[in-house]
Amino acid sequence: DIQMTQSPSTLSASVGDRVTITCRTSQSISSWLAWYQQKPGKAPKLLIYKASSLESGVPSRFSGSGSGTEFTLTISSLQPDDFATYYCQQYNSYFPTFGQGTKVEIK
Amino acid sequence: EVQLLESGGGLVQPGGSLRLSCAASGFTFSSYAMSWVRQAPGQGLEWVSGISGSGGNTYYADSVKGRFTVSRDNSKNTLHLQMNSLRADDTAVYYCARDHAPGHSGWYAGDYWGQGTLVTVSS
């Protein structure tokens, strides 16, 4: 199995801040990585697929980068609606795995 | 409008069985791989099982292999998860999710998700 390591596990930030979340994989996955946002009691929402492709309808302040084993999700200017938990997910095979999540909290 | 609606969750004793269903609408169901993803209370996301659009290819996480069976009825636009030999650590909200692009043999990433159904395994 491909192991996922997300960091940090918790992040405190203010509205307007630039936020970066990192995801590392135990082996190379090319660009087969997705990012999700999840709010309490709700289903995950796809933000980014194939490492850097923005899902339709997702604000352009979200961006993804990376390839191989290291990936980042960046929120260029944090908005009140962005306080949530973020997960990375690899799909290098048909046995996907998720990172443990990063909770973005209000500072 | 794409919609996914799970049902079938509930309270079951350890060792028992449960069958989850996911009713899909608003898209050509048979063209998309589907998956079940679960989330234990207060925990992260765990992929459980996936199935190709035709139903000919199925995939399972090691944690459920041999106990869970995924299937689909494309004539009824419905996805199922038969769960047997349930354990306390199977307690979770179970989501069904559509693959983000048609035609894949397996599920890559989920662009549409249901609201989830809670499965509680307890005596």
Topology:
The complex is a heterodimer of chains A (107) and B (123).
Chain A (H helix, E strand, L loop, with lengths): L3 E4 L2 E4 L5 E7 L7 E6 L6 E5 L3 E2 L7 E6 L2 E6 L9 E6 L6 E2 L3 E5 L1
Parallel strand pairs in A: 2-11
Antiparallel strand pairs in A: 1-3, 3-8, 4-5, 4-9, 5-6, 7-8, 9-10, 9-11
Chain B lengths: L2 E5 L2 E3 L5 E8 L8 E6 L5 E7 L6 E3 L7 E6 L4 E6 L8 E8 L10 E4 L3 E5 L2
Parallel strand pairs in B: 2-11
Antiparallel strand pairs in B: 1-3, 3-8, 4-5, 4-9, 5-6, 7-8, 9-10, 9-11
Task: Explain what the structure shows.
The complex is a heterodimer of chains A (107) and B (123). Chain A is mostly beta strands. Chain A contains no helices and eleven strands. In chain A, the strands form two sheets. In chain A, strands 2, 4, 5, 6, 9, 10 and 11 form a seven-stranded mixed β-sheet that branches. In chain A, a hairpin with a 3-residue loop joins β5 and β6. Chain A is globular, with a radius of gyration of 13 Å. With 123 residues, chain B is mainly β. Helix content of chain B is 0%, strand content 50%. Chain B has no helices and eleven strands. In chain B, the strands form two sheets. In chain B, strands 2, 4, 5, 6, 9, 10 and 11 form a seven-stranded mixed β-sheet that branches. Chain B has a four-stranded antiparallel β-sheet with strand order 1-3-8-7, with no helix packed on it. In chain B, β7 and β8 form a beta hairpin. Chain B is globular and about 40 Å long.
Could you give a quick summary of the protein structure above?
The complex is a heterodimer of chains A (107) and B (123). Chain A has 107 residues and is an all-beta fold.
